[in-house]
Design a protein that fits this description.
The complex is a heterodimer of chains A (about 190) and B (about 240). By secondary structure, chain A is mostly helical. Chain A contains 11 helices and no strands. The longest helix of chain B has 16 residues, at about 65-80. The chains are: A mainly alpha (about 190), B alpha+beta (about 240).
Amino acid sequence: MGAEENDLARLLSRTALRDRGAFERLYRLTCAHLLGVAFRISRNTDRAEEVLQDAYMNIWHNATSYNPSVAQPMTWLINIVRNKAIDALRSGKTEAGLTQALDDEALQVAGDAQLEPPQWLDASLTQARIDSCMNSLSPQQRQALALAYYRGLAHPDIAQALSVPLGTAKAWVRRGLDKFKGCLQAAGVHGA
Amino acid sequence: MNYLLPERLDRLAREYALGTLTGPARRRFERVLQQSAAARVAVGVWQERLALLEAGAPAVQPRPAVWQGLVRRIDAGAAAPGLAGGWWAGLRGLWSGRPLGGALAGVVLCVAVLRLQPGLLGLEPHADSLPPSYVGLLTDANGLPAVLASSYRQGRKLTVKLLRPVDVPAGRVAQLWALPQDGGAPFPVAVVPATGSAVLALSDTSEKLFSKVSRLAVSFEAAPAKPGDRPGADFVLSGHCVKLW
């Protein structure tokens, strides 16, 4: 665990003790990253901020359940936000979601929806130094994996977005994940 | 369906972590996660892998209203009677105003933490299980909780959970000691990790080791203590050891 992750772990342990100062520090250190996670799935600032606030309430009330032997602090935080964003996306029950008009932001997001995820995937893999390995994936596999992770899309949504049969979309995601795992193991990163 | 077959578990864990496990299947697997440490670890491994995909994705700064709304919601929760925050806030007053002194506060805190988060010590409820018999809460020099320890009465294992990282000096180990209530010499129990949690082997059953122990303490030692050794340094953490049943 790096120094930054150690700091987050310490702040989480303080948050578990209802230390508001530690909670605010945790928020300041992580909110921009976590709003990015929520925004990529929600694709709307109001909905993403609604998800983010719900997620931090969850963190405030459940910081004691963080287990450092299972996850890095940031990974734990990311997945609280991802799960909330995906639940909100699929339930379609957020108030903002029901009233959102097709404003400029929504139109812009719609236009970029399928272009940006593969770019984020490539940038992340470059930082993880496994981009050369991942280049052996087909463009379709990369795009399917990126849509699943960054947009929170389920298999039927991916199939529709890429205009392919459901079985094909499932196979692209599965093979993409297999290759991703293999590349990490080959690079000695999270190779369990 | 046996969800814990290795290949099936890995498939479900990766689909859950990615988010492509949907509907009733996702809800069923979440119930498995509540009951199975192996399932939680499998999901954790995939979440760690996938977290790498965040490295190249852009951050977005939230508007100030998000934090302001959070503060309002927390205040509203703290003010509402009967909520967990109420008695938590009361306990917080105990340790922010002065160091935890009495056994009562320690016992209340231990029981409260364990009731709220049984998974904290790997004590997920099972139909045929009993709560831990011996529980200890060690606090630091400022009275802040640092280590939770628990063991079953006839168990030969001690589960410890670090509530905050312990800054163990290089070349030293964090040695846990048991202090008998009759004022007898402390005896070594085990070495605790600096962070996280661990299940430590005991030399005998908890009942035999701890039935006459009133306190636990940690000192930084040059090497793990052997039976008959005595503390070679001041205690940096200490707290009451209580028998719950």
